[in-house]
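Dear U.,

Please find below the material for section 3 of the report. The protein was modelled together with adenosine-5'-triphosphate; I have listed the sequence and SMILES used, followed by the predicted complex structure.
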Amino acid sequence: MSDALISLDGVEKVFEVRRRTGLMRREKRLVRAVDGISFEIARGEVVGYIGPNGAGKSTTIKMLTGILTPSGGRLRVAGIDPARERMRLAHRIGVVFGQRTTLWWDLPLKDSYGLMRRMYRIPAARFRENLDRCVDRLDLAALLDVPVRQLSLGQRMRGDIAAALLHDPEVLYLDEPTIGLDVVSKARVRGFLRQLNEELGTTVLLTTHDLQDIEQLCERVMVIDHGRLMYDGALGGLHALGEGGERTLVVDLERELPPLEVAGARVVRVEGPRQWLAFPARDSAAPLVAAVAARYPLLDLSVREPDIEDVIARMYAGRG
Ligand SMILES: Nc1ncnc2c1ncn2[C@@H]1O[C@H](COP(=O)(O)OP(=O)(O)OP(=O)(O)O)[C@@H](O)[C@H]1O
């Protein structure tokens, strides 16, 4: 037995989709939303789970909460099989779905929290302590008496995160926690999550389309596409994957010139006297810089590494 808090071994989820193909005809089609995924997450990790639309992220999270039953494989969270013991697991995990709320729409925030307290049978002292910490750290004091429907998206999200933490979960799943939030709200949510992990050791698994969430929170990232794990490792390793790709030499010339002709590189963009030359990321930039400097009137130059967005975009594109 490993001491992983979350473990998946060859987990699959297949949906049967019926599609109308004619007036009377329907076609059955199988969608492999999750297609044999294995990974382990240790206590205290903050892991980003990313991938394009329809990759299988939400389906994975739903299996980890017990909402969906896997079609195959083995899955455990805190030693519990989520689909079999969903209620027991509910006391150990917190879940936040960015796209919808677990709060009661017409009730003031604090009444929702009171209901949560009863649902999870949270002892009074612990409830008070957790609520006070969340109110303080998420700046909720002025919002407690406001009905949820009157909260802004950012306020509601903070309210939802607090709701997910009142029962001291060991694991927090967040599905797109910063979606639609303004820059300030995003920063606040990220800061809170970082602090939560540092102070309480809460394990966090988060799906997002915002790579800044990953950069600012996660030491480890998993990339899923077509239901399969394409990458599992340090964020820095994603940059390294870009080595199969290209870097860019940005050249500032003394004057506008036709696209430069240099061996081992090609001009991909020209803007006035500035030109961008792409070259294989694994090659040294030195010979290229020397060749450009020898032949053209140079003012300045810089080398740009492929950024994570590019690397990931290429990973996705490579699978077509
Ligand atoms: N209940 C369902 N019935 C049938 N197909 C489903 C169901 N839920 C998800 N799917 C399909 O499974 C695949 C994976 O969907 P999932 O929602 O897990 O992706 P995702 O990575 O979370 O995408 P997004 O980033 O768009 O939220 C998609 O092809 C989706 O259409």
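For the text of the report, you could mention the following: Residues 222 and 232 are 4 Å apart (CA to CA).

Regards,
Y.
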